[in-house]
């Protein structure tokens, strides 16, 4: 990875782009020494994307059922880490182990955690505001 790979994002954001960015599951221990995939990394999302690049729009993950995530993290840990990292929309293809209850499981994790953790709840509320703002821009 080279810092110049962020140049297209810098250019778009500098021109006012603030719709959404999909974050993949790449790992770069020089940027985030914890070894977390970028989709679960507060360093990548909070420090690099939002901080250095100044992106204020919606952050969506790549499929959280891909092997890079599924093989290393359980569902609850994945959901909590993604939200805490600054993700606004968690994408699940529901194809790895398809089940009708997946949405309800994710919702339960979000609600239960928000009810017991005010910081987590505040993060969800930040995401909600960004998503509503994006929907308003798209609608117009």
Give helix and strand order, one letter per element, not per position: HEHEHHHH
Instruction: Summarize the biggest pleated sheet.
Output: 2 strands, parallel
Secondary structure tally, helices:
6
Report the helical percentage.
40-55%
List low-confidence stretches: none
- The Rg value, from CA coordinates, equals 15 Å
Which structural class best describes the helix and strand composition? mainly alpha
Overall outline: globular
Portion of residues in beta strands equals 5-15%
Q: Report, as a whole number of angstroms, the end-to-end distance.
A: 38 Å
Mean pLDDT: 96
Kindly state the number of beta strands.
2
* Widest sheet: strand ordering: 1-2
How would you portray this structure in words?
With 140 residues, the protein is mainly alpha-helical. Helix content is 51%, strand content 6%. Strands 1-2 form a two-stranded parallel sheet. α4 (75-85) crosses α5 and α5 (102-116) crosses α6 (118-139). The chain is globular. The mean pLDDT is 96.
Summarize the structure.
With 140 residues, the chain is mainly alpha-helical. It is built from six helices and two strands, in the order αβαβαααα.
């Amino acid at each position: 990875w080279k810092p110049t790979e962020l140049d297209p994002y810098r250019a778009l954001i500098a021109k006012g782009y603030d719709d959404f960015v999909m974050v993949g599951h790449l790992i770069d221990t020089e940027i985030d020494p914890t070894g977390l995939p970028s989709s679960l990394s507060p360093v990548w999302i909070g420090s690099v994307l939002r901080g250095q690049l100044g992106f204020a729009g919606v952050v969506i993950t790549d499929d959280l059922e891909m092997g890079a995530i599924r093989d290393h993290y359980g569902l609850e840990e994945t959901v909590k880490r993604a939200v805490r990292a600054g993700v606004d929309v968690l994408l699940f293809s529901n194809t790895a182990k398809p089940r009708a209850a997946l949405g309800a499981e994710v919702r339960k994790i979000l609600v239960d955690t928000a009810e017991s953790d005010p910081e987590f709840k505040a993060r969800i509320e930040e995401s909600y505001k960004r998503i509503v703002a994006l929907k308003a821009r798209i609608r117009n």
